[in-house]
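TICKET: design request
STATUS: open
ATTACHED STRUCTURE:
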């Protein structure tokens, strides 16, 4: 991340934009952050989790309030190159579960809250509920054949969106022209498992500028990312972005750079090809529909125990946004 061109931004500055959102990324954040005081997720009257429903509903309306059109992209089958990352995440979750049980036994309330927020499962039911909600809101949904951030990045490559909303730097390796990070966040964020905070502000990462200021090609940026480490491979020990940049500029390509360090990266050619040509929907159609207001209110209030008094004004905002003629900034952005 130390070599990436980044600039501060605000939702207001991005008025009229169309943005692709890595849905798994954002739903995981909602499941982690939208919690009751005791650390358990929000639930409806039948005990089913609603943290993701609440997060998606209010976040989407926030985008609409700022004349931003969101397109949510959901993961398909993960690449088998990701098997090790998935296994490591499973081990970490099991460790957190064991620590949570211990914290409960010891009556450590703050630790219970902290550990609870790190144990999340994005189930098929959570995905189906999320897609159902978004469709009732008239918001486009794209089901990726594989990685969601890859499909979102392809939409950016094709010029169908102004940028990708994700915390994941891999989006740049997949070719996203603009990546929005911390897009609706401002202030301080607690580092998970640690007792300190960092200041965060909305920003965008610019791919073209990153390549230009570093004097590298997209192929070389992919090589740098792989050397540092991605979701699909472990990086080289003690090699950060700046060291990887220097190695690539000195040796020209990743294989020669790796040989100079006496190391190899397993399945390198497959990882490179995944970033160059990720599985994606070839001709994605993005359609913004009118919301189904009656069904939306019924779903949220009758089925998921939301307050009708609170929901109705937001549904009215969705209706107003759907009826507006906000011009897309796609042409002016690039």
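STATUS: resolved
RESOLUTION: sequence designed for all positions
ATTACHED SEQUENCE:
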């Amino acid at each position: 991340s130390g070599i990436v061109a980044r600039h501060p931004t605000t939702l207001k500055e991005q008025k009229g934009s169309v943005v692709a959102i890595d849905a798994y990324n954002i739903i995981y954040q909602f499941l982690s952050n939208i919690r009751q005081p005791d650390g358990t997720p929000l639930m409806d009257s039948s005990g089913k989790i609603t943290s993701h429903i609440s997060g998606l509903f209010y976040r989407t309306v926030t985008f609409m309030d700022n004349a931003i059109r969101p397109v949510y992209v959901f993961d398909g089958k993960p690449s088998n190159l990701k098997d090790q990352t998935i296994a490591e995440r499973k081990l970490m979750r099991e460790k957190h579960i064991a620590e949570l049980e211990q914290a409960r036994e010891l009556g450590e309330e703050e630790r219970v809250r902290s550990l609870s927020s790190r144990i999340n499962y994005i189930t098929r039911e959570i995905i189906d509920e999320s897609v159902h909600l978004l469709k009732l809101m008239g918001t486009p949904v794209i089901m990726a054949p594989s990685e969601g951030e890859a499909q979102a990045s392809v939409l950016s490559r094709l010029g169908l969106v102004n940028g990708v909303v994700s915390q994941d730097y891999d989006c740049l390796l997949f070719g996203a022209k603009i990546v929005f990070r911390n897009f609706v966040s401002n202030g301080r964020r607690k580092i998970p498992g640690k007792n300190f905070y960092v200041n965060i502000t909305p920003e965008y990462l610019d791919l073209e500028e990153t390549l230009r200021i570093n004097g590298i090609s997209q192929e070389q940026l992919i090589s740098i990312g792989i050397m540092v480490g991605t979701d699909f491979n472990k990086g080289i020990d003690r090699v950060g972005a700046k060291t990887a940049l220097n190695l690539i500029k000195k040796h020209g390509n990743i294989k020669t750079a790796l040989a100079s360090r006496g190391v190899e990266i397993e399945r390198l050619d497959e990882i490179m090809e995944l970033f160059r040509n990720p599985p994606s929907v070839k001709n994605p159609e993005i359609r913004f529909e009118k919301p189904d207001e009656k069904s939306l209110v019924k779903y949220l209030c009758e089925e998921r125990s939301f307050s009708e008094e609170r929901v109705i004004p937001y549904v009215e905002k969705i209706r107003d946004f759907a009826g507006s003629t906000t011009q897309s900034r796609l042409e002016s952005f690039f």
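CLOSING REMARK: The first helix runs from residue 23 to 33. The chain has two domains: 1-212, 215-277.
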